[in-house]
Amino acid sequence: MSSMKSPIIGPRTLVLCFDGTDEQFQNTNVIKLFSLLEKDSDEQLVYYQPGIGTYAAPGVMAGIRKWFAKLADQAVAWYLDIHVMRGSVLPSTFILTCVNCLNQVMGGYSFLMQNYRQGDRICLIGFSRGAYTARALAGMVHKVKQVGFAYNIYKQTGKTNVNLATDFRQTFSKPIPIDFVGCWDTISSVGLLFSKHFPFTIGNSSIKYFRHALSLDEHRARFQPNLYHRVSPSAKAARKDPEHSSYPEKSPTSPGPETDVLEVWFPGCHTDIGGGTTPSPKLGSNTPSLSDITLHWMIRQMVITQCGVIFNNDSLTAAGIPLSMLSTTASDKNALIEMRNTDKKVLMDDDSSSLPSPLYSPAAAKEDARDAIQPLHDSLKTTPVWWILEIFPFVLSWQDESGVWHRDWRWNLGRPRRIYSPVVNLHITVRERMEDESLKYTPRAVWKNKPDAVWCY
Description:
The protein is α/β, with parallel strands linked by helices. It contains 16 helices and 15 strands.
């Protein structure tokens, strides 16, 4: 009598997508990328969480309450706890929505704990505060890894709680690496006046590859970029950080390998980086948009890093993304080109004609050149209500290794983002947009010191 053998189950890729829009299923890059993923495969499981959902029960005042809740959440991440822990999952072709309060609170994290098998690869994708949510989830996986009261342990960032989280992790959990975190213009704004960062959302050694597309032209007060900063070696070193965002917490856990980090600045405002402003195009229409530049860049980075994400070729073709656009290899790595000073004259005089083609296919270059000259979407111009927060003072906060927060009061008044890094990664489309004389484009962001620019594809 022959015995029945159990099927051999190989490792899978778990792809979790966190949106940042104020409505479900708008045309953000998260939605676009999600639509390109292979969903009918035993080798991949995908998950989608909308940004801001319904905050008020049905009723006469529901519309007003919902509008206020959306504005509050966009401004100060009022409902961040819910975003971190709720979501929808597509195990095949159906959307399964969390139906009770516990699942809404624990959705995103419990999805990983319920589905992760040893050897699986985890990729987290997000835009805006959805990107912050993705990084917060990565931090939670890094810090405690256990469902239930783990989230309450995670979100407390004092030194005593670090030891508690470590003990909890060693007792109940196994280390789980995150293969890839891809973010479009991460912002946090946690708290109305006193902003705090959740643990390990700035730096996290459990992440293998971190890729971040940033906006050069966004200038709203509550949309300050949340850059990736590795853990500072000491409180003294953290105090010297001009952005006040290096997390100096000394975790007793053994450090993992250093994260491969690439953050690149692109032309455009917040939604020009993460999408959601332009209406959804008809299938195959391939409507040009600034946000498509960062979408294509993120897809290439996922291919370059070999993080295990599986795309559906038919979906790529239907979306007007030529497969040749993905013709990069792992050896291309970060696709850094050359260094130049960031003075406008030097940028304009730069000759990129000799750039190596394997890093950037002709199809990709053609698409990006077309998208680079599309209109920007400045919310301070189109939605003047945002100016209320520009005249409101706000506080940026950071915490040293003793659990003490340090605060800086600021008035933004529509001022541009400041870039403090000595070397800045700029996408080649910045130069292409500047070359179009009809646009008269100069990046809005200002450099505290004139750094060198590393041109990226």
